[in-house]
Write a structure and sequence with these properties.
Keywords: Hydrolase, Membrane, Metal-binding, Metalloprotease, Protease, Transmembrane, Transmembrane helix, Zinc. GO terms for molecular function: metal ion binding; metalloendopeptidase activity. It is found in: Membrane. This is Zinc metalloprotease. The strands form six sheets. Strands 5-4-6-7 form a four-stranded antiparallel β-sheet. Strand 4 and strand 5 (165-166) form a beta hairpin. The chain contains eleven helices and 16 strands. It is α+β, with helices and mostly antiparallel strands. Among the domains are: 3-37 and 89-132 and 379-445, no CATH class; 136-204 and 297-303, PDZ domain (Pdz3 Domain), CATH 2.30.42; 207-294, PDZ domain (Pdz3 Domain).
């Protein structure tokens, strides 16, 4: 297991317990927020805007000190931070106030927060790539007699483009398969071999299977860990946490026995009887497997790290950050299009749970891999925060930038009171969304 495997964990949102994850999460969140606010702070100072308070956290102050014109504070709740500038969201343009600065200076101050998040993500990526390397989009194996092999794809080829989706690293191919359902249609792949680019087009094969529609807690257990939406087991009466003990009367108390049974008796469109246990009691249910078609790419690609050095460390660090930014943008796009719902969003509670899972699953691999996974998480969160803050929504940095660009284009500011009310309304909506997401996180865990 390597640091890149965190990509899959983050998307699938695996869960785990433990108090240490809270401490680690607080440290990661605090560092990311502090760096974000530091961007606002430094650009405000650069443009001679008075910063009244620079704080980490929200709520009552725990520690506070005044240096010059600025109060530096540590507050009770480690879930935010602020850089409060003189005259921000207020009328008036006295000396040192935010509104007294030129529109372009204010744009630089507001944009600095998200930009610093991207800078932080890049610096962390440099550490990861420098220590463990990057993930080349290399073809590791081509399925024999597959359309991909017949089209000319070979082991060692470096994928540059997959069906119109630009590929920089192996993770890009994985992201494409997450955000785009593979279909049995002509697929074009651009790849590099011996320094030259080639293009092939082929129609992938389809693997047809009949499935019950559940995932086990782990490979050694028959406990139901999750249900696959829209599949038969979801409406059978079996619940997450139940343990399947028999299939058609054959004992499958061990996962190996279940796998052997399925291999010898492949599921079809005929009903099967499942026996399961819940709270020490045994139950039976009849389920009709459902046909499930899987499009096969016809090749396996690399997801392991390759060491690199010199300027390549900077190059692939930038590409790593680009990957996370693009993944975040695609996720937002799918949310807007209705392909994702609010129930799919994860807030601080869910992220803490993922951090705990990541920490516990990588402990056995040594300190280096634990650190790499934690830094990879921080890259994701920092890039995510940068993108989210640039959204043109009131109260976010992107929303403020919209009003400033309006001022630049029309050479007059929007009424400060109107702008303030719009930002306040946006803040209330964001707080409501946070409560809903937090509730969903808690429900998913318990």
């Amino acid at each position: 297991m390597r640091y890149w495997q965190q990509n899959k964990r983050l998307i699938n949102g695996l869960k785990a317990g433990g108090k240490l994850k809270i401490v680690i999460a607080v440290i990661i969140f605090s560092a990311i927020i502090l760096f974000h606010e530091l961007g606002h702070f430094l650009l405000a100072k650069k443009n001679h805007v008075v910063v009244k308070e620079f704080s980490l956290g929200m709520g009552p102050r725990l520690l506070s000190t005044v240096r010059g014109e600025t109060r530096y504070s540590l507050k009770l709740l480690p879930i935010g931070g602020s850089c409060m500038m003189l005259g921000e969201d207020e009328d008036g343009d006295g000396p040192g106030s935010f509104n007294a600065a030129s529109p372009w200076a204010r744009i630089a101050i507001i944009a600095a927060g998200p930009v610093f998040n991207f800078i932080m993500a890049f610096l962390l990526a440099v550490i990861i790539v420098g220590c463990v390397g990057y993930v080349p989009a290399e073809v590791m194996e081509v399925e024999e007699n597959s359309p991909a092999q017949e089209a000319g794809l070979r082991e060692g080829d470096i994928i540059k483009e997959f069906d119109g989706y630009h590929v920089d690293i192996g993770n890009d191919i994985y992201a494409y398969t997450i955000f785009n359902e593979l279909k049995q249609k002509p697929t074009t792949i651009v790849f590099e071999r011996d320094g030259q680019e080639h293009t092939v087009t082929y129609t992938p094969d389809v693997l047809t299977r009949y499935l019950l529609g559940f995932n086990r807690v782990n490979a050694d257990s028959m406990e139901v860990g999750s249900m696959i939406e829209g599949m038969p087991l979801e409406s059978s009466g079996i619940q997450v946490g139940d343990v399947i003990t028999k299939i058609n009367g054959t004992s499958v108390t061990e996962s190996g026995a279940y796998d052997d049974y399925i291999e010898k008796n492949p599921l079809g469109d005929e009903p099967v009887t499942l026996t399961y246990e819940r709270n020490g009691k045994s139950y039976e249910t009849t389920v009709t497997p459902k046909q499930y078609d899987t499009v096969k790419m016809g090749f396996n690609y690399n997801l392991g790290c390759v060491k690199t050095s010199g300027l390549n460390v900077l190059k692939y660090s930038a590409l790593e950050v680009k990957y996370w930014i693009r993944t975040t943008v695609h996720s937002i796009g799918m949310l807007i299009q209705g392909q994702f719902g609010i129930k799919d969003l994860t807030g601080p509670v869910g992220v803490v749970d993922v951090i705990g899972d990541t920490y516990e699953q990588t402990q056995s691999e040594g300190t280096l891999m634990v650190w790499m996974n934690m830094l990879n998480l921080a890259i994701l969160l920092s890039a995510n925060l940068g993108v989210m803050n640039l959204l043109p929504f009131p109260a976010l940095d992107g929303g403020r930038l919209v009003f400033l660009l309006f001022e630049v284009i029309f050479r007059r500011p929007v009424n400060r009171q109107v702008e303030g009310m719009i930002h306040f309304a946006g803040l209330m909506l964001l707080m409501l969304l946070m409560v809903v997401v937090m509730y969903n996180d808690v429900m998913r865990i318990f």
